[in-house]
Specification:
mainly alpha, 77% helix
């Protein structure tokens, strides 16, 4: 599980890198197809699976395909160092699933751990909102000639109700520029807020779907071998992804694929890493003594890798402060693990 978590940490970073150059649906369709081709040599064993088992794997594949798409939409629109810590939600889902569905014993301090995870997520979200607000103000201050020579753009434009600007205090020479700047600022605030909220919602949906798929894994893996599971999973995901891509192309009357997309090296690396990571995961799940809550927690090691490596590669700001909130979240996860 530790090896799997390490691999998946880089997997998240590579997917974001791939989606910067190509359409999200194309990225998912291509790397899942590459993954299937790499595992296709196990076809002889895979055909021995029953129709009931195939239906379960198909359901899992549909859920995970949607999860990947939502996650890539989120990663394409926002910072990976801010989004990845939110995957701690998976630990909470796994914790309650282990109690309700699999009847695993949970102590009172684990509930404290869940509360700490929630607090860490709330603090991270509030800090991101404040950081985005500050960034908008700084960018407009640099680009506006008016704000360089005058101090009328103050905290009132960023939601501070105690700061009041009186129209008569603004020189007539700068009134037109002032209101134009205020309009730009408000528009930038709304756009950034919408983009951040969209990314967070998509990422949360992705986490819920991913952990649902993880719960299904425990039911499926006791009925099939690791090779059978991986073969059908990769086949179904790749087919579903291409169907989604075809549907979007027909709806928009345009194929979202460029000639350069086929040369996107990150997609090919992602496909290979996916197969390798899933092999370790499915092998670990064959152990009947592995706890669902334990699996969810160990998966979060990938968050540490993707936050730090992703922030360094994409040059995302405020990494040190985010690591502090990540430590809070990891503290809660460790308490749940005890």
């Amino acid at each position: 599980m530790v090896i799997y978590a390490t691999i998946i940490g880089f997997f998240a970073v590579l997917r974001k890198k791939a989606s910067e150059q190509s359409h999200v649906l194309f990225v998912v369709a291509m790397y899942s197809t590459i993954g299937f081709l790499l595992i296709s040599w196990t076809a002889g064993q895979a055909i021995e699976v029953s129709s009931g088992e195939l239906c379960l794997i198909l359901l899992k594949s549909f859920i995970i395909a949607l999860s990947w798409m939502f996650e890539l939409v989120a990663l394409k629109n926002y910072m990976i160092s801010s989004l990845q810590p939110i995957s701690a939600i998976k630990v909470i889902i796994g914790f309650f699933a282990s109690t309700i569905i699999f009847h695993e014993a949970n102590s009172w301090w684990r509930y404290i751990g869940v509360a700490i995870v929630f607090i860490g997520l709330i603090l991270l979200n509030r800090y991101d909102a404040m950081a985005e607000k500050k960034k908008i103000k700084q960018e407009l201050s640099k680009s506006s000639e008016f704000s360089h020579s005058n101090s009328f753009i103050n905290d009132a434009t960023l939601g501070n109700k105690d700061a009041i600007i009186v129209k008569s205090e603004i020189p007539k020479t700068y009134q037109s520029e002032y209101y134009k700047t205020i309009s730009l600022l408000e528009e930038a605030k709304r756009y950034t807020r919408r983009k951040r909220i969209l990314a967070i919602v998509c990422f949360v949906v992705s986490c819920v779907l991913s952990e649902t798929s993880g719960i299904l894994d425990r039911f499926i893996i006791v009925q099939v071998t690791t090779s059978q599971m991986q073969f059908w999973f990769m086949l179904f995901v790749s087919v579903l992804s291409w169907i989604f891509l075809l549907f979007v192309s027909i709806k928009n009357k345009q194929i979202p694929i460029k000639k350069s997309d086929w040369k996107n090296i990150y997609i090919y690396i992602t496909g290979a890493i996916l197969v390798l990571g899933d092999r370790f995961l499915f092998t670990a799940l064959t152990d009947p003594n592995v706890l669902v809550s334990g699996v969810s927690i160990l998966k979060q090691l990938s968050t540490v890798i993707s936050v730090i490596v992703g922030a360094l590669i994409f040059k995302e700001p405020n990494l040190k402060r985010k690591i502090v909130y990540l430590i809070v979240i990891l503290t809660g996860i460790i308490i749940i693990l005890i």
